[in-house]
Amino acid sequence: MTAAAEARVGPPLWLLAELTYRCPLQCPYCSNPLDYASQQQELSTEQWLDVLRQGRAMGAAQLGFSGGEPLVRQDLPELIAGARDLGYYTNLITSGIGLTEAKVQAFAEAGLDHIQVSFQASDPELNNAVAGSRKAFEQKLAMARAVKAAGYPMVLNFVIHRHNIHQMNDILALCENLDADYVELATCQYYGWAFKNREGLMPSKAQLVQAEHEVNCYRDDLRSRDRAMKVIFVTPDYYEERPKACMNGWGNLFLTVAPDGTALPCHSARLLPIDFPNVQTKSLNDIWYHSPGFNHYRGDSWMPEPCRSCDEKDKDFGGCRCQAYLLTGNADNADPVCSKSPHNDRILAARTAADHATAGLDDLIYRNARNSKLLYRG
Ligand code: FES
């Protein structure tokens, strides 16, 4: 890339450090690769610190620690302290499993800015069934309280799907009870394990409309009581007419580093038939500005019709490359979510299937090493 083109690209402002694919839970909507069990290699502490140094030198300011479950990395306090010294704003994205009050305290002392705890449902039975862990719910409750007690804003995340979408009122009541400051109700996005389980997870349109109504009513009620809890409801793009501006554009703001050091423009890009570089063999600067993988979908010269001549292409960049690949087998295609896409029928078929789906929790394929190995082999 020329210096002029480099200047147009700008630095990666957001760095996501996927520290590990290891996780004690088995959520059937996990965004990690289906073959994660065959990818055991993880960067060392020193290698991660070097990645963080390089990212910060390029201009990255926000840093997310995720996984898998990042708490399984014993060097997490060291990585947090290193990030704090470099001047990052840091966010830990965790299930809360493996967290203790002492760890919350240690992370606060190391300089962690923000912790987000995820739940699977509003009650222990459903929560633990989806998580694949009998004690998950109680632990999450205790750790959400510990995070708040340590002075952090309480940020709770619920992934919403057809098996818990009827719980909006109960979920929000639970969040209020925990004195949450922010609640993200994120309807499932279909990548990784969620794509594999889409038929068993995707809510019907009627379920979605009812859930949005309940959330809006709850918001009104919060306002009438002067309760400041902020509720964000993220709708599934399968029910939109235009695609999302995924990652705010390919190689534009976000840089993800997978556990083994593979650098990706988004957390799902590993599934694409594109060769992505690794931080163990290339500098982050080289990867971001010069690697074919990161330049593959920059700009609009790669776009086929109808995106190329679309007056909305600067708004949504043709949508999501991973979704185009998963649904059409070719990542160059317009995101089928777009009603102008010649492949929009895939989305319409998924909506129809969701209207008639009967799958129960037992029909889902849970994210665990055994299933990963079976899928990978088969
Ligand atoms: Fe990869 Fe959208 S998730 S480009």
From TrEMBL:
What cofactors does this protein use?
[4Fe-4S] cluster
Q: What is its EC number?
A: 1.21.98.4
Under catalytic activity, the entry for this protein gives: [PQQ precursor protein] + S-adenosyl-L-methionine = E-Y cross-linked-[PQQ precursor protein] + 5'-deoxyadenosine + L-methionine + H(+)
Q: Which residues form the Radical SAM core domain?
A: 9-226
Q: Which InterPro entries match?
A: 4Fe4S-binding_SPASM_dom, Aldolase_TIM, Elp3/MiaA/NifB-like_rSAM, MoaA_NifB_PqqE_Fe-S-bd_CS, PQQ_synth_PqqE_bac, PqqE-like, Radical_SAM_PqqE_MftC-like, rSAM
What pathway is this protein said to act in by its record? Cofactor biosynthesis; pyrroloquinoline quinone biosynthesis
GO molecular function ontology, one term from the record: S-adenosyl-L-methionine binding
Residues given in the record as [4Fe-4S] cluster binding sites: C23, C27, C30
Pfam families in UniProt: Radical_SAM, SPASM
Note whether Transport occurs among the keywords.
no
Sum up the protein's function in the record's words: Catalyzes the cross-linking of a glutamate residue and a tyrosine residue in the PqqA protein as part of the biosynthesis of pyrroloquinoline quinone (PQQ).
Assembly and partners are described as: Interacts with PqqD. The interaction is necessary for activity of PqqE.
Q: Which family does it belong to?
A: Belongs to the radical SAM superfamily. PqqE family.
- The protein's name in its UniProt record: PqqA peptide cyclase
State the organism of origin. Marinobacter excellens LAMA 842
State which gene encodes it.
pqqE
